[in-house]
Structure formats: structure tokens, C-alpha cells
Batch of 2 targets.
Target 1
Amino acid sequence: MSKRVIYLKSAEEAEIIKENGVILGKAHAEVAKIVGAGVKTKDLDKIAEEYILDNGGKPSFKNYNGFPATLCISVNDVVVHGIPSNRELLEGDIVSIDCGVYKNGYHADSAYTYMIGNVKPEIKQLLKDTKQSLFEGIYAVKPGSRIGDVSYSIQSYTEGLGYGVVRELVGHGVGKYLHEAPEVPNFGKRGNGPKLQVGMVIAIEPMITLGKRFVVQENDNWTIRTEDRKAAAHFEHTIIVSKGGCEILTTFEFIEKVLKEKNLEII
């Protein structure tokens, strides 16, 4: 099976991915229960891994190309691929939690960015706008449209608000592999790129910066942070193209239920 060929999924395959999306959403919710100031990022990772394994899945990220953990935990100016560690989260931080679940031969992939206590107003707005840009991209999905239509929707929305759009990292197809064709950039031109077809499963994941779009990679060969050290946010859903547009196969429902129970603001 080639990673460069776009594979359309059957209704049965989509259902497996959606079931994995529920496990994934609930794993995120277990993290949401304890995320907060004073918590070590490696403790969040342990909780997610245990939940996934207890529910018959495997963490998609662990050992993927040598990545050492279940979660990518990216704090403040780290865009993606942060490695869990003894670092304690602090009041005013933001933290992106990216996770994948593999079960019954298929992956599901999603990410959510949390506020730790009171964050600066402009950073809170960054999170709100990045999350909205995810849905702007999703709204552009329908059979016959092109990847560039999704990319353009995200880019035009976020750059119109003055943010930077990371170019070096993109969304992707999802299925038997964690990363399949096609790539789904968060920047592009309408009418460009592969045509969206019923059965295509893609992860849409805006990575948006408060400052300029440029990023650098740390010496660990994983961690990607903003070059200007300004904050970045990241939200992600796995979706399938359907006759009526698309269906979201992952979920933020369980995360946001926990946030509501904790009396925390849902952005």
C-alpha cells in the first residue's frame, strides 16, 4: 500500500475510524481532567497512554519514526511535536495536546489547545480564531472541491486577522497509515490540489502563530517552535468527505464536557 496514493474509505472503514475517534476523544478528556498549573507534561502523557491501551487501542504516535511518547505536548511558542517531560505547566501557559489512536487497522488523529488559568487576551483570541479556522476549513469540504479550497479558507481567515500560517507542517490523509496522501496545507489557492472525493479521509489541522509564520526545529529533532518565540495554537479533526459535504470522525465533545464541569471557559 503506497502512502502517495489517495485511498477512498468505505462506510465500514469510516465507522472504524469514527469508533477510534471516540476512544481518542475520551483519551483527550482524561487529559483535560488534570491539565493545569503544576502538572508535569509527562503525567498527561501517561494518562492518555493508559486510557488508549485500556480500551484496546494503541497510541499512534509512540515509536512513530522514533517519537518517544503517546502525546505531542506543545507549550506556548512550541507549534507541534513537543516531547512530554518533567516540565510543569504554569499559570498563563497554553498547551497543544495532539494524539492519535490506532485500532482495528486504522488511525484517528486530533489536537486541542488548552489555556492554563488566565492567559493574555491576545493569546486567548489566537486560540479562538485558530479553532474557528479549523471549522472554516471543514466548511469548505465537499465532493468536487479541491484541497486548495480548504487551504485557502484557513489561510484567508487567519491571515485576514493578522496571524501567521505555518507552511512547513500540514494536514494529511488518515487511514491504515497515520500519514497518507493527500497533504492538506493550511495555505493555498482555490481550485488547486487534488479533487475531494466521497470517501477521502483527511486530518485538517491549522497551526497558527501570533507573530510571524517562521518556525525552527530544536536539537531533539522533533520540537518545532516559532522563530520569534511568539505563541502558536493548533486544533485538528479527522474528517471524511461525504455526499452532503463531510462528517467529522473525531470529537471535542468529551473535552469540552470536562472543561464545563471544571467551570473553565470553552473557546
Note: The first strand starts at residue 58 and ends at 59.
Target 2
Amino acid sequence: MIRVSEAQEILLKFSKKGPTERIPFENCLNRMLAENIFADRDAPPFDRVAMDGIAIQSDQLQIRQQFVIEDIQAAGQEQKSLNNPENCLEVMTGAVLPAHTDCVIPYEKLTIKNGVARLISTDHKAFQNTHKKGIDAKKGEQLLSSGTWIHPGVKGVLATTGHTEVEVAQLPKVMICSTGDELVPIQNTPLPHQIRRSNVYMLQAALKDLNIEAHTTHLPDDKEQLNASIGKLLEEYDLLMFSGAVSKGKYDFLPDVFEELGIQIHIHGVKQKPGKPFLFGTKSTKSIFGFPGNPSSTLVCFHLYFKCWFNHYLGNSPKSNYAYLNKEVTFKKPLTNHLLIKSSFEDGKILAEPVINSGSGDLVHLALADGFLSLPPEKDTFKKGELFPITYFHQTGL
């Protein structure tokens, strides 16, 4: 078996940056931008009113505190002009700043009666409450870089620059395969010796959190059928995920089937708990992930290894997160212990409270955890207040 860090290094070695594709703007949220975005005009494109109120010439503040309202400049209207410097124009947020004005006084700072605006205070200055043309960006300036994760704010920039289509990193086509004759569909009533399929849907949801729409199937514990089915799936999908049948049991046929199909196995066994039997292999451009059958093992290995592979595939370099252990833990095996935790925030720190569970097959308590701490194998006692890497089960930006 190899260490966790060695396994991740191997994954990065065999994860190549994926292709790109152009997709409609409407579908680009939570995708990885694969082009640089430039301003097609100044931002803002005109001197812009930043608050509802009146626009005046600021030098008049030394002379008067009341202004006759000449007109209204609404958002979306062509620029109007102040004809008499002793007067003002009412202005709306987002409107073009009227010509011959340089100061906006909000309604909260004045009263209006009989068409005359009277200032409540004189604490005003030139260019207040205005948004100068080009102050955010000049035409031709780069606004976004390739490799930017498209969240709602980024999508707003794409909209304002007129991108009806966007170049993004193409997502892999994924099939998730459950294995095991003890598994039945979720709508069935299991017999005493059976359980409903759950890992496959847990993985599908985890992929959905990454914006990947994955298909699912179930394969029986039969070597010949596995060989035939997986051979066909390799032709159709970029990436296969398996839950179960990768350990050393008599019915764990997948490692032998993979070798017969020409799949090169790069990882099979990691010094960790849960998830020791984790498997990773490749065939040409196809990648294969074999997760152990217990739910905690599956979910931990998905976030620790698939997301490592996927970030490299996207060209993404996420930041590491750390949390303070909130209770002393003892773990005497010389393995990396992926400790299920529930996180919280206190005084600007992330605290990790261990989730008590009965082992990697405990799906009930897995649902109470929002991530795990990876405790190193070099020692067996981990004290309250010590800092360790945290991996979240939910999407926090990849």
C-alpha cells in the first residue's frame, strides 16, 4: 500500500487537462472558464448616477442651498443638460450624469416642495455619488482570466460584456456502476439479506455538486458479465466509477476484470482508514475509479482522490482548508485517519467536532458529518486545538 500523498501524486500524473467547449451563456454557471474575457467598452460606459436624488454643479454649494428643479434624468434616457447652473435636475440611480453637473445629492439629504429642492446639510463635494466613466475598466482591458470558476458574479461580467456563448472546460462523461448481488433498487423492499443501493446515488449527488450529470447502472457479481459490460462502457464513457468489488473478497472480481480489459492499475491500496482498497486505473484516455463498498469509504475517497483528479483536469488549483480539532482523538494504527467531523465557526476559526460512528459502513452517522479531517499516521494521539487539513463533503468552490 502507498501513502495518501503518493496516491494523489499518481492521480495528478495521469490527469491531463481536459478539452474545452463553447456553451450557451445560460448554462455556464458553475463551470470553469476557458478563455480570457475583455471589456468591450469602458465600465461604466458613461458618467453614471449612483444614487437617486438631484444633480447640481458643485461650485454652487458655496452660494446657495436651494435649487429649482428643471427636469428629470431617468435611467435609460439619453443625456440631458442643466441649462441654468443655479438649478438642478432630479436623477435616478443608473442614469447618465446630466451635462454641466458634477455632484449628486441623495433624496435623504434634501427636501422637495413646489418644485424646489432644499438641502438639509451643506456637507457635499464634487463627484460624490457618481460613478466615473471607465473607472472600473477601460475598453480592451482583461476582466477575467481563463481558469476562473463561473459563480453568479462572474456570470454578471459575462453578461455585461455581451457573451452569449462561453468557452469552458468540457466535463467528462461519467458512468457510476454499483456492484453486488446483495443490492436492490431503492423502490424495492429488501429481503433480510439484502440492502438498497445507496452509494451510487451518493456519488451521483456528489458529481451533481460539481455540475457533472452522471449516469448510473448496476452490475452483477459475475466475472463474464462484468467483463462484457465494462468493455462496452469503456467505449462510451470518459470515466467509470465503481462502488464495491475492489477489495480481496472471493467475489471482488473488478481488479482481475480490469487487467483482462487492458486497464492499467496505478493505485490499489492506500494506507488510510476508511478506504484502504481504493483503486485507480487508466486505459488510453479513459480513467477508472474503484471505491470500496462501505459508504464512508466511498465518499471520503471521492472527495480525496476524484476531486484531486478533477481539479487537475479543469486546470484548477484550489486552496487547502484547515480546522482545529475540538476534542482529543486516539487512533493507534499507522494509517492516515480520515476522521468524520461536523464543522463550526468560532472567533474566526473553523472547529471540527468528531462525529461518533460505528465504522465505514455507518451510513446514518455519515449523514451527520459535513466533512473529514485527515490525521497523519506519524502519531496516535491528536489533541484538542491542533490544526489539521479539512475536506468538505459539500461544494465550497471545488
Note: The two ends are 27 Å apart (CA to CA).
